[in-house]
Amino acid sequence: MLDGVSLDQIRAFIAAVDEGSFSAAGRKLYRVQSAVSGWIGSLEAQLGVALFDRTARFPKLTPEGVLLLADARNIVSGVNALKARAKLMAGGLEAELSVVVDVFFPTATIAAAAKAFAERFPLTPLRLFVEGLGAAYQPVLDERCSLGILASLPVEFPSLVSERLDEIPLVMVASPQHPLAKFRGRIPRRELAKHVQLVLTDRSSLMSGKDYGVLSPSTWRLADLSTKHAFLKDGVGWGSMPRHMVESDIALGSLVLLDAREDFALTMSACYRASAPPGPAGRWLIDCLTSLSGGVTRPADDESADRSGSFRYSR
Questions:
Q1: What angle do CA 147, 114, 106 make, to 5 degrees?
Q2: 4, 133, 157, 312: which is deepest, by most CB within 10 A?
Q3: Nearest to 260 by CA among 195, 168, 211
């Protein structure tokens, strides 16, 4: 019966292969040769296949043994990972880290932080979600994510603590074929209002009925930033975008800056529930993002000051 297979049997099997003989395996495992032979023999009986050909001076793996060796190594590796993870968890490390990232935050920064995180915490799974506006706050508020990399909103969240990370410049852009691209100098608001403005919609109810930075009565609501980007390049409307996403387009001439005097920086912060502060992995990730962003981590005690420039942004 396979239910009776033990780790001692599997480790003896692997050691015999690695060391080349049952006696050498016994020395490695600090067991007598008869114990190793007994474990391997009982393992073969339970599996119903011969793992070694014993007709020569030294045992040689059978074809079945070759195939089952990889499975045996995976079992031992999994048990070792289980023990290591349990030890880390007992020391306070998160079992996993779930993070929601605002769609406006630079992907390159997140990717660099995630790569470093994997090297620093190889046994802690990192789960990343990308959302915008209130939909980015919702997973943190609902306790589905322990950490959020979020843009400031003109809404109070008393249960959350925020630490400022960076500011993301936003710029108004349109295709060079768009009528607004032909203006020289500041574009009057009455002229902006004549054309479709592309706005990122909120997939949550937190911002229901609220619009910020909407300057045209004619708007198209888009659910993701990549679609908005594609529409802008294709001449379908005008709107704001994070500068880091459109710098190359502006340089290549596929998008042009609009002088609407509505550009500003969007404050990004690391947010978490006050009742569940980040553990070692979460704290490390916040510090890593702060370092990569070139900012200084600090609790946002005076959030009104931080948000004063963020109330008017156009998504």
A1: 80
A2: 133
A3: 195
Q: Which residues pair with 149 in a beta bridge?
A: 101, 270
Query: What's the pTM value of the predicted model, to 2 decimals?
Result: 0.64
Q: How many CB atoms lie within 10 A of CB 135?
A: 21
What is the DSSP secondary-structure string of 169-219? EEEEEE-TTSGGGG--SPPPHHHHTTSPEEEEPPSSSTTTT--SS---S-E
pLDDT above 90 covers a percentage of the chain that reads: 41
Distance separating alpha carbons of residues 36 and 179, to the nearest angstrom? 82
Give the start-end residues of each E strand in the chain.
52-53, 60-61, 97-102, 126-131, 147-151, 160-174, 197-200, 219-222, 239-242, 256-257, 264-273
CA neighbor of 73 nearest in space, from 123, 15, 4, 1: 15
Compute the average pLDDT of residues 20-33: 89
**Tokens at 59, concatenated:** 């045992």
Q: Report how far residue 306's alpha carbon sits from residue 35's, in angstroms, rounded to the nearest whole number.
A: 69
SS3 100: strand
Short-list 166, 145, 131, CA closest to 291: 166
User: Which whole-number Å values give the CA distances from 267 to 103, 129, 208, 234, 270, in the listed order?
Assistant: 13, 19, 21, 29, 10
